[in-house]
């Protein structure tokens, strides 16, 4: 309680619900870091049908598709 986390959005130290959740390793309501955003997307795409539609949509983005490793050897793709 004596050392509140730094809030990047406000530029000040202070307690927020998300700050407290980050401190104890819980999922936050408003993801900020890449890891938090990936976890939020993973949670939202738990259903295979939704995940497939999201994957197709994301792969239509040239910048996103260009960052993927080549198939074969990375272990992500099934043959």
Summarize the helices and strands and which ones pair or pack.
Blueprint: E1 6-7, E2 12-13, H1 17-24, H2 34-44, H3 48-59, H4 62-66
Antiparallel strand pairs: 1-2
Structure description:
The chain has 79 residues and is mainly alpha-helical. The protein contains four helices and two strands; from the N terminus they run ββαααα. The protein has helices spanning 17-24, 34-44, 48-59, 62-66; strands spanning 6-7, 12-13. Strands 1-2 form a two-stranded antiparallel ribbon. β1 and β2 (12-13) form a beta hairpin. The longest helix is centred in the last third of the chain and has 12 residues, at 48-59. It is elongated and about 50 Å long. The mean pLDDT is 85.
The biggest beta sheet is recorded as:
2 strands, antiparallel
**Fraction in beta strands:** 5-15%
How confident is the prediction overall: mean pLDDT?
A: 85
Give the ordered list of helices and strands: EEHHHH
| Number of separate strands | 2
Task: Write a short abstract of this structure.
This protein is mostly helical and 79 residues long. It is built from 4 helices and 2 strands; from the N terminus they run ββαααα.
Describe the structure using short key phrases.
single chain, 79 residues, mainly alpha, two-stranded antiparallel ribbon, 2 strands
């Amino acid at each position: 309680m004596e050392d509140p986390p730094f809030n990047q959005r406000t530029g000040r130290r202070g307690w927020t619900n998300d700050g407290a959740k980050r401190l104890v390793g819980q999922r936050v309501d408003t993801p900020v870091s890449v890891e938090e955003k990936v976890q939020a997307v993973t949670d939202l795409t738990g259903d295979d049908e939704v995940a497939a539609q999201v994957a197709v949509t994301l792969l239509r983005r040239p910048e996103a598709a260009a960052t993927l490793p080549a198939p074969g050897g990375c272990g992500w793709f099934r043959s």
